Amino acid sequence: MLTDTKILRSIIRPPLYLRQLWTAARKSEVLHVFGAAHTAFFFGAVPAILVGRLLGRPVILNYHDGRASEHFRLWGPLLRWLLRRVDLIVVPSGYLQEEFARHGFESLVVPNVVDTHAFAFRESSAIPQRLIALRALEPLYAVENSLRAYGILRPDYPQLRLDLYGSGPEEQSLRALARELRLEDVYFHGTIEHARMPEVFAPGGIVVNSSRVDNQPLFVLEAFASGLPVVSTAAGGIPWMIRDGENGLLAPVDDPPALAKQVRRLLEDPALSRSIVEAGRKDLEHYAWPVVREQWVEIYRSVERRRAT
Q1: Which domain holds residue 276?
Q2: What residue spans of 46-189 are helical by DSSP H?
Q3: What number of other Cβ atoms are within 10 A of residue 112's Cβ?
Q4: In 18, 149, 204, 253, which residue has its Cα 20 to 30 A from 299's Cα atom?
């Protein structure tokens, strides 16, 4: 196949995408456009927005990238021009809603959806001594801080292990850091198919997230659905998902000792862990499809009403 070659793929895919987009848009009443930051936005969302305007179709931009602030900083004038040409902006978190408002754009919040039926909620009297990190191995997710926090904890918890799921350009430097810190029982599992996520959560443990930039990561909701507590940095939209001390624990960005301290609290206080897990479970009702579906139905109706007036 021509698209199996990287250079040819870069040349061939844009016109193929545009052809498919034009065909689909002509048959559609509303264009629901997903948007991320930077080049992904311009190669994916921009053509859809422009085609929608050309065909006179309502356009809903569903923006879901925690790097929105940087996106505005680097591409401000062009991004604002494009945003003024969509009918409605929808974001999954209050964090992004505030970010767009800061630049003069109103948006509606519709949260991400978690399939609660795919994950088995497991109650446990004691947390297994296992940390789980589920991020791409890239600088913005600062996985090295999860490694350092684990290194702080390991002397006091010799049975503790760290399972890292994800791949990326930082993998070799992270492996080198693990060797430098002489960390044992650190396992790099690479990228895992999303369908296998229930297997990741099944043995239990504590989900640890040390990201510097974030929005509304789905694995937090999946941890809630599986009965696992979450310790995370308070990056981006995370504080809109996790209320510190209630349904999870938060730590400052780039502070491995603080991250380790929060993990230690859960390991030492089973009652705290149980209350956090239960609160996370209750929160899931806001992210279930029947609830989110009604929000989307109302959004589509509101776009129709706007066009009718």
Answers
A1: 116-286
A2: 46-55, 68-83, 94-102, 143-153, 171-180
A3: 16
A4: 18
pTM: 0.87
Neighbours of 249 (CB within 10 A): 24
Give the chain's domain count: 2
Do 132 and 55 share a structural domain? no
Residue 167 burial (CB < 10 Å; 0-12/13-18/19+)?
A: middle
Q: Are residues 241 and 166 in the same domain?
A: yes
Shared-domain flag, residues 228 and 91: no
- Is 159 found in the same domain as 257? yes
Helix (H) or strand (E) holding 133: strand 130-134
For 210-258, what is each residue's pLDDT tens digit?
999 999 999 999 999 999 999 999 999 999 999 999 999 999 999 999 9
3-state secondary structure of 94: helix
Instruction: Give the CATH number, domain containing residue 241.
Output: 3.40.50.2000
Are the CB atoms for 165 and 131 separated by under 8 Å? no
Report the half-sphere exposure of 134 (CA within 13 A, side-chain side): 22
For 192, 209, 210, 253, the CA distances from 164, given in Å and listed in that order, are: 10, 11, 12, 19
